[in-house]
Amino acid sequence: MSTDGARLDTLDLALLRALTEHPRAGALELSRRLGVARGTVQARLQRLEDTGVVTGYGPDVDLTAAGFGVQAFVTLEIAQGALGDLTAELAAMPGVLEAHATTGSGDVLCRVAARSHGDLQQTLLQLGRSASVVRSTSVVALSELVPLRTLPLLTSEGGPPARAPGHRGG
Amino acid sequence: MSTDGARLDTLDLALLRALTEHPRAGALELSRRLGVARGTVQARLQRLEDTGVVTGYGPDVDLTAAGFGVQAFVTLEIAQGALGDLTAELAAMPGVLEAHATTGSGDVLCRVAARSHGDLQQTLLQLGRSASVVRSTSVVALSELVPLRTLPLLTSEGGPPARAPGHRGG
DNA sequence: CCGCTACTGTGCAGATCGATCAGTTGTGAC
DNA sequence: GTCACAACTGATCGATCTGCACAGTAGCGG
Prior knowledge:
Two copies of one chain form a homodimer. With 170 residues, chain A is of the alpha+beta class. Chain A folds into two domains: 10-59, Winged helix-like DNA-binding domain superfamily/Winged helix DNA-binding domain (Arc Repressor Mutant, subunit A, Orthogonal Bundle), CATH 1.10.10; 70-141, Lrp/AsnC effector binding domain/regulation of amino acid metabolism (RAM) domain (Alpha-Beta Plaits), CATH 3.30.70. In chain A, 36% of the residues lie in helices and 25% in strands. Chain A contains six helices and six strands, in the order H-H-H-E-E-E-H-E-E-H-E-H. The first copy, chain A, has helices spanning 10-21, 27-34, 38-50, 83-92, 117-129, 151-156; strands at 54-56, 60-61, 70-78, 96-102, 107-114, 133-146. Chains A and B meet through helix 1, strand 1, strand 2, helix 4 and strand 4 of A and helix 1, strand 1, strand 2, helix 4 and strand 4 of B. Chain A binds a DNA duplex (30 and 30 nucleotides) through residues 26-29, 36-40, 42-43, 162-169.
């Protein structure tokens, strides 16, 4: 297996962390916070975006606060060769937050959100009516134990030390 | 059920959409894009953050690009009353991206990521070793059918028309 | 030893930010 | 009908940040 992932060194990780904690901070503030030059922050950030590690900075919407307090995880068993059709169907349904093809005989796991249990059932029924779906099982999310996060994983390995420090001040 | 969610009108939705498509845009550029005054954008954005609808602007990290190309969904059946302990354990494991308590007799659904199948198995084994876990089932994600998104859901209802337009220029 | 790359610190012109003000308009209360 | 209120507009101000360029320093490999 080739290492397709761009290796993130300590500075990259620190940059991501700082950016997570202060999302609206500009390059100058980040550079101050990290103790490096502004140009370095800009270059690193540019590289992270170029390599596809950082795909965006979209606003994180709290669906509960927005009025969509009901979420569910649905496992779909789909008909042979219907993956393409189903993908299009899922993408067209606003209530479907995300969907993944998984191991198992044609299984798809998707996450669904709705404003109420009634609305959720509507979406679930619509899913079940699909010609591509053979069987479906759903569980309702009751509480969020661990909110979505990626930094702990990235940090866990303690990346390689930063590059040549170069001109060390003075 | 009370409508705890802050109602988002057309302008709020347009703002979120513009912000999603141009995440690094400042208030001025957003105002130009939406055709409203800069102060309005700032006020709306402030309100969205105050009401908790927008919780942050953290950088979206593509785990595959970062070298963590293996993801799995794990269903844990847990022992009675062990939810608290398990939550702490899950939070302490970097490989656990998120976790939700779900319907079913003490079930928890969590998403796990790893650098390779071997690493994934390590995490899975660690989960199984937990005293709080009675049984565990895991499916590996093969491909992402629908990437995570929230805007379609928010937009689907076509929020109420914007507020009093006020001074209409001229 | 030399070339390459990465980082540092600085400077400048232009753009943006945050705060504030008066003016206009729709809404709901009285 | 009239009034106060809330929301949006358009504008200004100083302070700050951005994008870009430059020369200098330090580690790495040939």
